[in-house]
Amino acid sequence: MAGKQRPRFLWLASCAHIGEESHDAKLFAQYLAWAKRHNADIVVMGDLLDTGLCIGTKHIGSVWENDLTPDEQIDRACSLLGPLKRQIIGVVTGNHELRIERVTSINPLKQVALRLGVDYSGPSKVLRWNKWTLFCAHGTSGNLTSDFKKVLDGWEGVSVIALAHVHYLMTQTIVRFVVEEGSAIVRSRKIHLIRTGNFLKYAKYAALALHSPTDVGSAILEDNGSGNLKIHLGLP
């Protein structure tokens, strides 16, 4: 009799904001250690770096809430992720890295990926993980569902949509009816919508903007061989 399949994990690592004074370095280190211990695959979902600037963005002055320069943030990210680089299967940019790209044309997260020798996909990535097809992107401003709707309107065939940006850690499963082309056969298909979380404590800008505090941590996918996808909102 075959033994039970060992679970496989995918860590959707979003919004670490390395360099921001409210970055939860202790919790991020716990996730890194867990990922190494379980040999989890990793997708970096953007805003790995905070990249506070005093020019060129609507967040002028956020540089004063950073305790590392952008160059030091790149070094810190490479140091933290270097031991897990063989587990990284995708990197997409976030709006914080775009701060520097829009001013200089240089994306610092791309530089991290290049230094680590891992795939950098820019704004979004579609990937096949075990039996599931994932659409991964950083996400956009607005309410909690508007950017999911954009993906649902524009992309067919995905089973998981993972977005970050708004720092919420949550999941919802929806059902779509699919009519087979050339027939009247109707099948149902589940799509998992995931907000992938963050590693930022209650930052000054959030308090000033009257944002609600959010849970800190990440979404992690688990395939235990049962045929069902398990979504953890935090470490398993």
Could you explain how this protein is built, in words?
The chain is of the alpha/beta class and 236 residues long. It is built from 6 helices and 10 strands; from the N terminus they run E-H-E-H-E-H-H-E-E-H-E-E-E-H-E-E. Strands 1, 2, 3, 4, 5, 6, 7, 8, 9 and 10 form a 10-stranded mixed beta sheet that branches. Strand 2, helix 2 and strand 3 form a beta-alpha-beta unit. Helix 2 runs parallel beside helix 4. It is globular. 36% of the residues are buried.
In CATH, the architecture is 4-Layer Sandwich
CATH topology: Purple Acid Phosphatase, chain A, domain 2
Shape descriptor reads globular
Largest sheet: 10 strands, mixed
Order of SSEs: EHEHEHHEEHEEEHEE
CATH homologous superfamily identity: Metallo-dependent phosphatases
Strand element count: 10
The CATH class name reads: Alpha Beta
Which stretches of 5+ consecutive residues score pLDDT under 50? none
Annotation field: number of helices = 6
